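Folding Task

Wanted — backbone structure
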Amino acid sequence: MGIPGVVVHVSGPSWGRSTRALGVRDLATGEPLAADTRMRVGSVTKMIVALIILRLVDAGDLCLDDEIHEHLPELSDLQVPRGVTVRRLLNMTSGLPDYTSEEFVEGLLVAPDRLWTPSELLEVAFSGSQEFAPGTSWAYCNAGYIVLGMLIEHLSNARVEDVARRLVFDPLGMHATELPPLTHGSSTLPDPRLRGYHRQADELADATRINPSWAWTAGNAVSTAGDLRLLVEASARGDLLQEQTHRECMSTHPVPDTTLGYGLGIANFDGMWGHNGELPGFQSFAGHDPATGTTIVVLTNLDDHSADTLAAFLRARLLDAASS
């Protein structure tokens, strides 16, 4: 498949539990990848952010149908319309304009060291127009999860990375996961030997230096395959949530032109619940099938939907094995 390096985790009652690393962490040195390598996981971060918000709902700090203006009145300056609720930000039905256009992503390769603030990201997003009236359709929106990150910090009076540690990482035992703080040095990975690659035409360009501040609470997390197993299984089961809140989380909106559904920070991939993520240099998939108890996690140091493709291949092979 042309992927430089990949970490694969598969577990379930029929398979046991296995985590394997294949390939290299750096094409130049050929150094092998390790199974416990910490990689950027992109939009799998959204499962983390959603869990934080839902735990704050359970604590009585807000309600899912609160208007975002009630908590962040400064958003009025960006002309955020009425009807943009916490629920609609979580399930991508807010209609807010996004900032991650192809032009924006290509610009990251030109100026990889730039430190982006949440306010700057929203300024880019709101240079465009509202996609649709809130609640009337569905569209993937990173800007909505930037707003949710601001909401977490406002409600908690603390940095989102510290809130994530207290409400998600520590309770689940995710000791190798972090939301890096927004600093000029946040492009540095825990393992400086690890390189991430972006496909340009027929060549692979090193995209490791790109400062992931541009993704913040939409995709800034660093984690391992083992930790993502803990996250996706807990998210699918509702381990950290009250029963009613978990039901709300798993209530999905259909994703247009697909068979998928999207809940509150978690997607239903035809019976396998979880999330995928991609940012320059890295791609990830984490999914759990409650019906079979099967979990698949894939981390790659190549973007270009590499983890999605490999996860789909693995799932098909497991289904074939189960039916034979």
